[in-house]
Amino acid sequence: MLRRLQQKSRDSVAMLISMCNSLEDFVKGYSNKLGEVLLLTKNYDTDAEVRKLELLKRHFPADTFLRCDIMLRDLDISRRLDKSIHENKDVSGSFHAIIMSGFYWPGGDDDSDLDDLGQDDEEEIALSNLQAWPEFETSVQTYETEFKKAKASRKLKFVPSMGSVTLELEFKTRKLKLDVCPEAALIIALFKTKEDSFTREEIKLQVKISKEKVVEQLDFWIKQQVLELSAEGYFQLIED
Question: Which structural domains are found in the chain, ordered by start?
Answer without folding.
Answer: 16-107+121-159 (no CATH), 165-237 (1.10.10.10)
